[in-house]
Design a protein that fits this description.
It contains two helices and 21 strands. With about 290 residues, it is mainly beta.
Length: about 290
Amino acid sequence: MIQTDTGDIIQEYNYYGNHIEREYTYWNPGTYYPVLSIVDTTGRSWSTSYGDVKITVSPAPMLRVDVAAPERGSVGEIILIGLSVEGGAPPYSGKLDFGDGTPPLTWDNVSSFPTVVNHVYNSPGTYQITFTVSDSKGNMDFDSATIVIEEVSPPPEVYLSYAEIEAMKYQFQITISGGEPPFKGSISYGDGASDSINTSDRTLFFTHEYSEPGSYTVEVTIADSLGRIDEYSIVIDVTAPPPPPPPPPTPPEWETMLAVAGVGVGGAIAAYLIYKYLKEKKRGEVT
């Protein structure tokens, strides 16, 4: 028979063999002097002396509980809630209340807690999340966090239109409806060039000039502050500018001379007829 006096309790048990290990948990802080006594089947006994072994049990660290949650969220969004428990004397019991009337999460006689849990709120409002933990010694601690849940807006929708402002040069208009600003994204013109978007405005204008005629796919991608994405694309046919008009024809030499003299064609004909009449009259050919 083996008897152990751990300093706070005496235990007896039968054992057959020549090697033994026992585990024991002290529940209260203090200094203990365990004594081991052994009696064999013939009645012979042996024991350690009081004070041969000294065990000092320190108080368990103070129980400390923390809960962390984002300040804001949206209806239907998965909210991640962080949990932390330090110190105390396990096993623990705990409760996590989400503050929205849904059943809380509970734990009984556990040695640890999950570091992250998730929850979805179905209505807008301000909610207080409370995490309460007690240990095996009756110590208790709690922590709380406040989160504001907002009504979620419709997802973003983007629309793209364009107008040719001169040959091979276009103005593009982007219109955004729905979504939560600010918006980020880009517009790609299909020829390797692009512009970035980072704005809270819902109507945007961009100008781009193409260097070569051809068919180009212009694409717009927009993401709102909640990470929701929308895309829109159009195909435009860019044509080369028309050739310049040909130069005016060169007038005959006599027209050039009349123009230099400041006389039009009609005036020149009239002058010629008068000249011809006076010449014929002088010859007596006309009266």
